[in-house]
Design goal:
Helix content: 55-70%
Protein name: AAA family ATPase
Number of helices: 25
InterPro entries: Bact_polysacc_biosynth/exp, CobQ/CobB/MinD/ParA_Nub-bd_dom, GNVR, LPS_length_determ_N, P-loop_NTPase, Wzc-like_C
Distance between the termini: 40 Å
Number of strands: 12
Membrane topology: Multi-pass membrane protein
Strand content: 5-15%
Shape: flat
Structural class: alpha/beta
Radius of gyration: 59 Å
Keywords: ATP-binding, Cell membrane, Coiled coil, Membrane, Nucleotide-binding, Transmembrane, Transmembrane helix
Organism: Azospirillum formosense
Strand order of the largest sheet: 5-12-11-6-10-7-9-8
Length: 750
């Protein structure tokens, strides 16, 4: 869709831009001035009422500091540690100062239950009494009779009667009221805490603030002492219990040792049987080692006995004879190899050396056999020694089995006795430390300055109250004005339409607030010089100037949603054009909710649906308006599928035929955002007039409907704003059509 944009060369300058922006802001304030006035009046009234009811208050402040310095008199660990110097710890101390428990102590200490300022059960001037007294002081009038009448009326209605209460409820209410007047703050950048209290009297405010500080410091020190005393009491009780347990566990160890006859040996904590068992185990390990060595030696001897030439037999068997025979064997084998190389295997010398080598090896095997017998004997001796030690160990183990079980139980009893003694000694030492700490407790905070009675009240005066209410009301009103204007997603004037959706807005159709009984379609004929008639006539002129009312033109009139005034625009425009002498045909294509027949009359035997399906002829459906000569065809809601009828080729040919017979054909179509009936008529129309209700229809809905028309191949050529309140428009808008509207009304007749 081509955007419709108006460019003014003067807007290029920065000064003009600021002027336009300022004008828009002022226009918003003017348009929403009722909201601003209502907000100012409400806030001023509330502020005035509050000023009359509110009593002046005095605020007194004391300063505390969480002391970062600590005094270390001893190296003993404290039962309760000092406060950490962190924001969370300071926040916790502030909560303690403002807690209900601290407030209850202050209330009881100062007797605030009997103070009328905090105890609502005590008789004191009511809000009405204070308001009337404020009026008396401000205006100088005596309103005592009025006060008595109001009080009597409220008492008779049960409003001013106070319900009976108990002492506990009174005290709880006083504590809550005192806490509301208390505040404790810290800036999170230092260790200071500001304790403030607000009261009606300056001296009372200072006294209560100092009482909170004093109670907090007292409670801090008392908490440490109470915790330390509780720790001492617990340690004493626990030490007495442990002392008895140590005595019982030591006696159990001695009794069990005597009962089992567990006599300690010379090695310290071991018995004689345990020492013998350990020695026998060591001897068995030695015997097993010797037996392993003997078996390994026997295995090597068997290898040498089978083949004395393999391996080092002398090293394996440890025999000097085998060693000497081995050396001879090496010499003979070397000479044998030389002779074989020189003379061959058949030489007599070679045969002699072969015989010598054979005899020598036979001697080595015989010697190895003898040695192996000796080694086997050693293996048997080692095995016998091992068996003897195993038998002795088994026997001794059987003898000491009972003693080992007794030793296990004895060790368990000894461990229990030692553990009890260690715990007893540790707690005894800790008891001595905590007793020394009882007189060394220090506060974690100290007073920097006590609260002093203030000289001036901390609450604002009555004039400031009223002035503040006026200013706040003005600000709130302006905020609400801009907010309402921002949230208003409708169209305010034709310029707004063109800037938002880029379609020319050709006119405004005013509403008829002063003629509620008059029908617009008759009013345009009965009062041709009225504002309403001139507005409709201006729309016709604009359409004619744009070529939309040339001979053979088909103007499709639609809207986004129902209630926009679409049918009214069709009727008034069609009747005015017909009254001016033009041949105009009005086709009611809204087959779901038709209205034209109810307005102009419906006496024809057929309607548009009958004409499309062939049940009626042209002369059977066309009716004539008696006042203007307007030809119209009504629609009746008896069709189940109106979209199929409206999109048929038959209707397209009917509209084409009508465009040849009439100067202008106007199609009253259904709303685009509700049903899709109007979309099928776009191919038959030459112009599309879109009706939007002024300050009513959301812009997004209108834009979406226009986009749907564009998607169907029909651009919206013009827009009309309907049901416009011209007085409100002239008063709240600065657009061109609103300028001079009040002065222009003398050209119109009512």
């Amino acid at each position: 869709m081509a955007a419709y944009t108006h460019v003014d060369g003067a807007l290029g300058s920065e000064a003009s831009t600021r002027e336009v922006a300022l004008r828009d802001l002022l226009q918003v304030l003017r348009r929403r001035r009722s909201t601003i006035i209502a907000s100012v009046l409400c806030c001023t009234a509330l502020a005035t009422t509050g000023a009359l009811l509110y009593e002046p208050r005095f605020t007194s402040q004391a300063v505390l500091i969480i002391d970062p310095r600590t005094t270390e008199v001893t190296d003993i660990n404290a039962v309760i540690s000092n406060l950490p110097r962190e924001a969370a710890a300071i926040r916790t101390e502030i909560d303690m100062i403002t807690s209900t428990a601290t407030a209850a102590k202050v209330v009881d200490r100062l007797g605030l239950v009997h103070d009328p300022e905090f105890n609502g059960a005590i008789e004191r001037p009511s809000a009405i009494d204070r308001a009337i007294a404020g009026i008396n002081d401000t205006l100088g009038y005596d309103l005592s009779p009025l006060q008595q009448q109001i009080t009597g009326y409220l008492n008779s209605a049960g409003i001013g009667v106070k319900e009976p209460t108990t002492a506990e409820k009174e005290r709880a209410a006083v504590i809550a009221d005192v806490r509301r007047g208390l505040s404790a703050t810290s800036d999170a950048q230092s260790y200071t805490i500001l304790v403030s209290f607000k009261a009606k009297e300056a001296e009372k405010a200072a006294r209560i603030a100092n009482a909170f500080v004093d109670e907090y410091l007292r409670d801090q020190l008392q908490t440490k002492k109470d915790v330390n005393q509780q720790a001492n009491k617990w340690l004493e009780d626990r030490i007495n219990e442990l002392r008895a347990q140590v005595e019982v566990s030591d006696k159990a160890v001695q009794d069990y040792r005597a009962q089992q006859g567990l006599v300690l040996g010379s090695a310290g904590g071991e018995t004689f049987l345990s020492q013998q068992l350990a020695e026998l185990n060591r001897a068995l390990v030695v015997a097993q080692t010797e037996r392993g060595r003997a078996e390994a030696r026997a295995q090597n001897a068997r290898i040498v006995a089978r083949s004395p030439t393999q391996g080092n037999a002398a090293e394996i068997l440890g025999s000097p004879l085998i060693q000497r025979l081995g050396e001879e064997e090496s010499g003979i084998a070397r000479r044998l190899a030389e002779y074989r190389t020189r003379y061959g295997d058949q030489h007599p010398a070679v045969q002699a050396y072969v015989n010598q080598l054979t005899n020598l090896r036979q001697k080595m095997r015989e010697e190895a056999t003898k040695i192996m017998a000796v080694i086997n004997n050693e293996v048997e001796i080692a095995r016998a020694r091992e068996r003897e030690l195993e038998a002795a160990l088994k026997k001794l183990t059987a003898e000491t089995a009972g003693e080992l079980g007794a030793n296990v139980r004895l060790a368990q009893l000894q461990r229990e006795a030692d553990a009890n003694r260690r715990v007893y000694e540790g707690l005894l030492q800790r008891l001595v430390e905590t007793r020394e700490q009882d007189d060394l407790q220090q506060r974690d905070a100290r007073v920097v300055s006590l609260a002093e009675p203030p000289l001036e009240p901390s609450t604002p005066g009555k004039k400031l109250f009223v002035g503040g209410g006026l200013a706040v009301g003005l600000l709130i009103g302006m905020f609400l004005a801009f907010l309402r204007d921002h949230l208003n997603k409708t169209f305010r004037n034709t310029q707004h339409v063109e800037e938002t959706i880029g379609v020319p807005a050709i006119g405004l159709v005013p509403s008829l607030p002063h003629h509620k009984n008059a029908k617009p379609e008759d009013y345009v004929l009965d009062r041709p010089r009225s504002e309403y008639s001139e507005a409709v006539r201006a729309i016709g002129v604009s359409l004619y100037a744009r070529g939309a009312l040339n001979t053979g033109s088909v103007v499709m009139v639609t809207s986004a949603v129902p209630g926009e005034g679409k049918t009214t625009v069709c009727l008034t425009l069609a009747r005015m054009l017909a009254a001016s002498g033009r041949r105009v045909l009005l086709l009611e294509c809204d087959l779901r909710c038709p209205r034209i027949g109810n307005v102009l009359g419906d006496n024809a035997p057929g309607d548009l649906s009958d004409l499309i399906v062939g049940k009626a002829e042209w002369n059977d459906v066309v009716q004539v308006d008696g006042r203007t000569g307007l030809h119209y065809v009504v629609g009746r809601p008896h069709c189940d599928h109106p979209q199929e009828l409206l999109g048929s080729e038959k209707l397209a040919s009917i509209i084409k035929f009508a465009s040849l017979e009439y100067d202008c054909v106007i199609l009253d179509t259904p709303p685009m955002a509700v049903v899709a009936d109007a979309g099928v008529l776009t191919r038959s129309a030459t112009e599309c007039l879109f009706v939007v209700r002024w300050e009513q229809t959301p812009r997004a809905v209108v834009q979406r409907a226009i986009e749907r028309l564009t998607e169907l191949g029909r651009d919206v050529t013009s827009v009309v704003l309907s049901r416009v309140d011209l007085k409100k428009l002239a008063r709240t808008d600065a657009s061109e059509e609103a300028y001079g509207m009040n002065e222009a009304r003398r050209y119109y007749t009512r």
